[in-house]
Design a protein that fits this description.
oxidoreductase; elongated; MICA1 monooxygenase; F-actin_Monoox_Mical; bMERB_dom; mainly alpha; 154 residues; membrane
């Protein structure tokens, strides 16, 4: 087993572990966001009830509750934006994993001597190459989407 093959295999395992850890961190953050959403919903419901039920309360109190409600809406919108970004990151990780798998398959076909390749091998190699290009294009679309989103936020 040549050294370069061992190095490639080690790097593939390392990048797979990095993607796995990143996916776990994203999943944890999505769960945290879900919990925070529920908490914000409960707080918002309480504030709405206070605003509807307390018609006799002072105007200052009404203004304070309204400001709190607007603050909760702003927090919720920020969390929704973060959740959207995380979902894009999840898609990007899936495509990255798919690309690595296709790279590995393609490399195995390309490492074969041309004289040893069957017509089926050549056809499979071309199909994998086609799939690889599709995955790269999908990743490019995601990156463009993120860039457009970033620019629109500025």
């Amino acid at each position: 087993y040549p050294t370069w093959k061992r190095t490639l295999a080690r790097r593939a395992r390392e990048s797979q572990m990095k993607r796995f850890c990143k996916a776990q961190a994203i999943q944890r953050r999505l769960e945290e966001i879900e919990v925070t959403f529920r908490e914000l919903e409960q707080q918002g419901i309480k504030l709405e009830k206070l605003l509807r039920d307390e018609n006799e309360s002072p105007t200052d109190q009404h203004t304070q509750w309204t400001n709190q409600l607007l603050y909760l809406v702003q927090k919720k919108n920020n969390l929704m934006t973060e959740e959207s970004d995380l979902m894009i990151a999840v898609q990007e990780l899936k495509l990255e994993e798919q690309q690595c798998q296709l790279d590995e398959k393609l490399r195995s076909y390309m490492n074969k001597e041309d004289t040893m390749k069957t017509p089926e091998d050549e056809k499979a190699e071309q199909e994998i190459l086609k799939q690889l290009v599709e995955v790269v294009n999908k990743r490019n679309v995601l990156i463009q989407l993120q860039e457009e989103k970033r620019l629109s936020e500025l």
